[in-house]
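Propose amino acids for all 130 sites.
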C-alpha cells in the first residue's frame, strides 16, 4: 500500500525512523540546481532531455534498499512522478512506500508559479543545492 504524507509529516517520519530511505525521483538537473533534502538518494524516474522512464529505476532502488520492508519515501517536484515511481516499486514487491504529496516545489499558484503554496522548500524544511 502507498501512503501519502505531506512534506512535514515525511520529514518527521525520517527523523523517527533511521532505516527509512528518501529517494528523489526528479531529473539530475532538478536535483542539483533546484535543490534537494539532505541525504536524499537521487534515482530519477524520468530523465531529460526526452523524459522517458528510467528502465533501471527499480533495480537502482534495490541497490539502495534490498529489503522490501524498508520504508521508502519518494519525492519529486509536486507529487505526481513520485506516485508513479511508488506504484512501480509496489508492483516490484516493496511494501512500505510513502509518496510525499506536494513534493519539493509544491503546486502551481494562480500565477502558475511553484513554491508559493506548499511543498518541501515552502515549509522551510532542510534542503541544499549541489
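Proposal:
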Amino acid at each position: 500500500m502507498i501512503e501519502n504524507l505531506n512534506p512535514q509529516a515525511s520529514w518527521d517520519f525520517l527523523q523517527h525512523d533511521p532505516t527509512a530511505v528518501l529517494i528523489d525521483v526528479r531529473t539530475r538537473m532538478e536535483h542539483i540546481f533546484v535543490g534537494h533534502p539532505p541525504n536524499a538518494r537521487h534515482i530519477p524516474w524520468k530523465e531529460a532531455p526526452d523524459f522517458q522512464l528510467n528502465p533501471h529505476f527499480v533495480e537502482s532502488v534495490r541497490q539502495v534498499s534490498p529489503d522490501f520492508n524498508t520504508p521508502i519515501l519518494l519525492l519529486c517536484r509536486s507529487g505526481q512522478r513520485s506516485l508513479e515511481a511508488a506504484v512501480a516499486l509496489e508492483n516490484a514487491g516493496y511494501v512500505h512506500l510513502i509518496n510525499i504529496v506536494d513534493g519539493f516545489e509544491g503546486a502551481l499558484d494562480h500565477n502558475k508559479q511553484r513554491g508559493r503554496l506548499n511543498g518541501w522548500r515552502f515549509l522551510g524544511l532542510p534542503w541544499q543545492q549541489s
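DSSP finds four helices and seven strands in the chain. The longest helix spans residues 80-91.
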